[in-house]
Write a structure and sequence with these properties.
Blueprint lengths: L10 H5 L11 E10 L3 H12 L4 E4 L15 E2 L7 H34 L10 E4 L6 H13 L4 E5 H8 L6 E5 L3 E2 L2 H14 L3 E3 L6 E5 L2 E5 L3 E10 L17 E10 L4 H6 L6 E4 L6 E4 L5 E7 L7 H13 L8 E11 L6 E6 L2 E5 L5 H16 L23 H21 L2
Parallel strand pairs: 1-2, 1-11, 2-8, 4-13, 11-18
Antiparallel strand pairs: 3-7, 4-6, 5-6, 9-10, 10-11, 12-15, 12-16, 13-14, 14-15, 17-18
């Protein structure tokens, strides 16, 4: 069994449903489709393809849900980071509106799957609040709410005493509210997707790291330490954990670290006072704060960090987040700390790549992994099943690489400190 110390410190690892039975792939085998990465995107892809009768293998370096799919905040947020007109400007009049529809309908897609397959993942649909961290951020949120509402998203705003009641604190004075948003247990959700994929005929292999992908005759050959796999299609669903097994893909994303902490189990009175109607929250900080309740009397709060172990300055940032949003909880009230990698793209939108016939990659959820990862899995399956590129709801694009990618960790550290300072100044002088 893979043993990643940080993963076993997470709250989710301690409270998830049991994982499905999987094993390491050995020998020489053949499948119609091989999927690299057993997270939400890869497992949704596998489920849709096996339902259509294809033979599918899912290979993971560790186990289903080991990456950010099993370590995220578990928020289901059906909204992009940009204004709708900005996305249309980026993607054009055909794919721009399609991308907007992907976001608007993403929460519905997640909850429909949960209902269809009776997934046991503590799903709640109580809405999402996005708070303005300073007065200067309010006009942007107001514009965001209007523009997305005009497209049909159920978004409005809430402020003052009403917002303070919904928060259980006075951490924000203005927020937008997306009523279709919600939350779930991310590791349980991923394991349940694995379960139903297996029940529909997929094969899922743990501890099966792909080290090489080469063209072999009319198909593709993948090599692991213990096996060789031949497939007509290879689909990469590695997101923030993308490595060098598909040349050039890693340089298209920056793996940002999202860290979070969970409190000790709270008394019923403490728990009921915070987020009493069960909303999830995030804010407009460049170095974001985000949080939620679980269903086991704990409060979670997170931010950006530098280590998946959430140590040192990352814990300091978490403590500052609690002080700003839920000051009733002190450092000694926090019990679990952990983190995971999210894939940040240049345009802050998900990307679909087809660098060669039979090779697909879908990645770049930019912190919207529960919702958009689920959507991306369906989109990838549609392409494998024969949908034309021009008819897809995400454009198929060439790699858009980050320059000097090898130095990204230095850049992220410097940028994070700079953005954090700007956030603090805006709070101070608002």
């Amino acid at each position: 069994m893979s043993n990643f110390r940080q993963n076993h410190q997470s709250l989710w690892q301690h409270t998830a449903i049991n994982p499905p039975k999987t094993e390491t792939l050995e020998g020489s085998v053949q499948f119609d489709v091989t999927i690299v990465g057993a997270g939400i995107t890869g497992l949704r892809t596998a489920l849709e393809l096996t339902k259509k009768g294809l033979s599918v293998a899912v290979l993971d370096k560790h186990e289903p849900g080991w990456g950010a799919s099993g370590r995220s905040g578990g928020q289901i947020n059906p909204l992009a980071h940009a204004q709708p007109n900005e996305i249309i400007d980026q993607l054009g009049p055909v794919f721009g509106p399609r991308m907007l529809d992907n976001y608007i309908n993403s929460a519905d897609e997640v909850f429909n799957i949960i209902e269809q397959y009776d997934l046991k993942c503590d799903a709640q649909r109580n809405g999402w609040l996005r708070g303005a961290h300073s007065r200067i951020a309010i006009p942007h949120l107001e514009k965001m709410a209007k523009n997305w509402s005009d497209l049909g998203l159920d978004i409005d705003s809430v402020e003052g005493n009403e917002l303070h009641h919904l928060l259980g604190s006075e951490g924000y004075s203005y927020a937008t509210r997306v009523k279709s948003g919600g939350s779930l247990h991310p590791l349980s959700y991923t394991r349940e997707l694995a379960r139903v994929a297996l029940e529909n005929g997929a094969k899922i292999y743990r501890d099966s790291e792909v080290t090489e992908v080469i063209k072999k005759g009319s198909s593709w050959q993948l090599t692991t330490n213990t096996a060789v796999v031949n497939s007509d299609w290879v689909v990469f669903c590695t997101n923030g954990y993308t490595d060098d097994s598909l040349k050039g893909l890693k340089e298209t994303i920056i793996p940002l670290i999202s860290v979070q902490a969970a409190t000790r189990p709270l008394s019923d009175e403490e728990y009921s006072h915070v987020l009493p109607e069960g909303h999830t929250i995030s804010d407009t900080r460049r170095v974001i704060y985000y949080g939620r309740k679980d269903n086991r009397n704990r409060i979670l709060l997170g931010s950006l960090g530098t280590s998946e172990l959430c140590v040192g300055s990352d814990r300091d940032r978490i403590h500052k987040a609690f002080e700003a949003v839920f000051p009733q909880f002190k450092p000694q009230d926090l019990e679990f700390f952990w983190g995971g990698r999210i894939a940040h793209t240049k345009d802050v939108l998900p990307h679909l790549h087809e660098p060669a016939p039979g090779i697909l990659a879908g990645l770049g959820c930019n912190g919207r992994g529960i919702a958009m990862g689920t959507v991306m899995g369906r989109i990838l399956s549609e392409r494998v099943l024969g949908k034309k590129q021009q008819d897809m709801s995400i454009p198929t694009t060439p790699y858009n690489k980050f320059h000097f990618h090898r130095f990204y960790q230095v850049g992220v550290t410097i940028t994070t400190k700079y953005f954090e300072a700007r956030d603090a100044l805006e709070v101070k002088f608002s």
